[in-house]
Automatic annotation (TrEMBL):
Transmembrane segments: 6-26
Protein name, as recorded: CYtochrome P450 family
Family statement drawn from the similarity comment of this UniProt entry: Belongs to the cytochrome P450 family.
Native source species: Caenorhabditis angaria
Residues involved in heme binding: C447
Amino acid sequence: MGFAIYIFTVFVLYLAINASKIYKFLKKRLKIYKYVGQIDGPTAMPILGTTWQFKLDSKGFSLQLYNWAMEYCEKGAGLATFWIGPQPLIVVLNADAVKTVLESNKLIDKSDEYNVFLPWLGDGLLLSGGDRWRQRRKLLTPSFHFNVLQEFQQVFDFQSKVLIEKIEEEMKKQTTFDVFPFIKRCALDIICETAMGTTVDAQTNHNHPYVLAVAEMNKLAYEYQRKPWLWIPILAKVLGFTSRHKYNLDLVLDFTRKVIDEKQKEFEESGNIDDGKRKAFLDMLIEMKEEGGLNDEDIRSEVDTFMFEGHDTTSAGIGWTLWCLATHPEYQKKCHEELDSVFESINQECSTDDLKNLKYLDKCIKESLRMRPSVPQFAREVREDIVVDGKIIPEGCSIMVSPAFMHNNPRNYERFEEYDPERFSEDNISKRHAYAYIPFSAGPRNCIGQKFAMQEEKTVISWVLRRFEISTTTPFLDNMPLPETITRPEFGFPITFKLRT
């Protein structure tokens, strides 16, 4: 009896001491239930939310989310609610609502679902919010200036040529193979050299520890976002997630810090890094540090952010475009004709003017990014109440925008399942809602590296198409897009390569 009284006394004291916090928490939750309850969504259960209905496989989950979104969209709703455990996720369903979300200065912060990336990416441009994000964005924007991108072109060309060599080597064994791993290794080599000024030779050394660790970190991030029980530290530890995450995180961070240390020593010894060599993103960050703009951890987080955002996304963009053209030979033929008119030989390196003149290829890339956007969805945290589509979204919710849904919505695109590059003629673009096409997001928090990505994708694809004719026996729509960290192809990209004559 005495022990029970003791426990009761401790409990009462805890309530008394924390009464104000408990009151604020309950008030906030009741407000969320009041307003979010006015927005339609799949049936949710206490604690589990909507997750009890989620399909466990990526393909089933992808179709399930799309069908749910279409169901509420067809009812005329501009929003739908999904409960990820006890956390409400508001999904935006029409272009006007997307415009409200992406143009809002209230919705700058990424949602808490991105917290899995914090140990890796730190407070870099992707994850920072508020004034810190605004200051960092302003500081880093010059790093993506036209003149800087021109210097990176040499890297794009060189690594594209290595990719061609690797494809030709594989053709000696088989003419049909999944080209996606080849593209990913090429993209990783490009981002390593442009971001850090170093090489990992991923296209040659497939088993480099950094190459393997980056791939595993992306898989772990997707696993964390899909499984809310991993958000509970003790469960994550018991299930082995924590140890796998720490092992790969240590590999990635150690590699980045080693490269940064070497670069800083080089800077200290020479007094500058402007010795006629091409500058990497890291070089520019070190110069910013010398000017008082960044510290060592800032540099590390920005380099890792650039590595993360510029690797899988561009490889997905390249892969899906090649897939679209392999399954649509009539459009591939037009690309070949354009490439033959712009380049005098298959070995000619790309100039900025050359890339500008690839207008039809540009349409093809944009149409593939419409059908299969590299980033299928992204979410923002609601820090203060905001009205979207006539509904109050209270503080404490997350709002998700899905380029994959917006781009494959019959309200935005007729015949949305058909690949048609002419959707990106000037006339057709002018007829479309500006926020119906958002592969690089939009508004103040759009992708800072979108010009970098388009330049890289155009370069790599132009090299591949100048050398090869590509085809496949798999129908386009049979290769399902799986919305993971990136839009991953269900079957990879099994493409048949034939040397052009």
